[in-house]
Amino acid sequence: MALLLMALCGAFRTLAQETPAAALADAPAPQVDGQSSNQDSTGAQVQSSDQVQQPAAAEQTQEQKAHQQVQEEEQQRILGVLPNFGTTYRSDAVSLTAGQKIGLAFRSATDPATFGISFIVAGYHEANDDYPEFGWGAEGYFKRAGAAYLDAFDGAMIGNGILPAIFHQDPRYFRLGHGSTVHRTLYAMSTTFMCKHDNSRRWEPNYSNVGGNLIAGAISNLYYPGQNSGWEQTVESGLIVTVEGMAGGVFDEFWPDISRKLFHKDPTHGLDAQARETDASDKKKQPLGTEPK
């Protein structure tokens, strides 16, 4: 287990140093609002008043945009059932407020589909003879379902809501949507360890997600049977959830492609088409004999 932790830490440091320049090179770029200044020849007092009013108006506009984008994301479902609220198809998605992050996490954690998944996981554990201390039959099944739901709820609220609000990190998955399959896969996996900062919109280590997984694993010691609790259970649960998050990121990246191919529906509502047009335009601008960026 010690070797596994050292390997994970080494991989995390490598991603923190290399990912922004490699796997995230073509990631959705941060959008910087244009700045303008109004000059008035009547004196500095009027200019100072304008400067005080402008930031408040800009902040209100950004919060309104975030509210509209969250409303869009809350309509996103895979196969019309599974919530996909934590994914944005907009490269210029604005930062969320602390309340919006926690609210979005709570909305996902309390969705009926999340409860349904917990019952499926409980059935798997019972069929696999996991956690025999819970017992068998209806009582054991519902105990396993409750534990599975608490795992999902704790992970969502801590890793996607509370910690992102504290560290000022954006908990959403920013879908790339263009480029080679390999590049998109590496990008999707790397976002488990990297995320955007609220203010700079630059990529940084995803303390919220990794830390949230470990904290949720520690909390699980309170309701899992005694012999399965402790530091080993905490690390194991955190690693499992982290690996699941990497797989989930890959699925989120390619789901719109699958949906268009099999169901002839575009979850991005035309945003992928715009990205392809931009790629084609950039390739035409490349000098002959050079590789596209």
Topology:
Blueprint: H1 2-18, H2 44-73, E1 77-78, E2 82-83, E3 87-88, H3 98-109, H4 112-127, H5 137-167, E4 169-170, E5 173-174, H6 181-190, E6 194-197, E7 203-205, H7 207-219, H8 231-263, H9 271-285
Parallel strand pairs: 3-5
Antiparallel strand pairs: 1-2, 4-6, 6-7
Helix pairs in contact: 3-5, 4-5, 5-7, 6-8, 7-8
Could you characterize what this model shows?
- This protein has 293 residues and is mainly alpha-helical.
- It has one domain.
- The protein is 60% helix and 6% strand.
- It contains nine helices and seven strands; from the N terminus they run ααβββαααββαββααα.
- The protein has a three-stranded antiparallel β-sheet with strand order 4-6-7.
- A hairpin with a 5-residue loop joins β6 and β7.
- The longest helix is centred in the last third of the chain and has 33 residues, at 231-263.
- The two termini are 40 Å apart.
- The model is unreliable at 1-23 and 29-57 (pLDDT under 50).
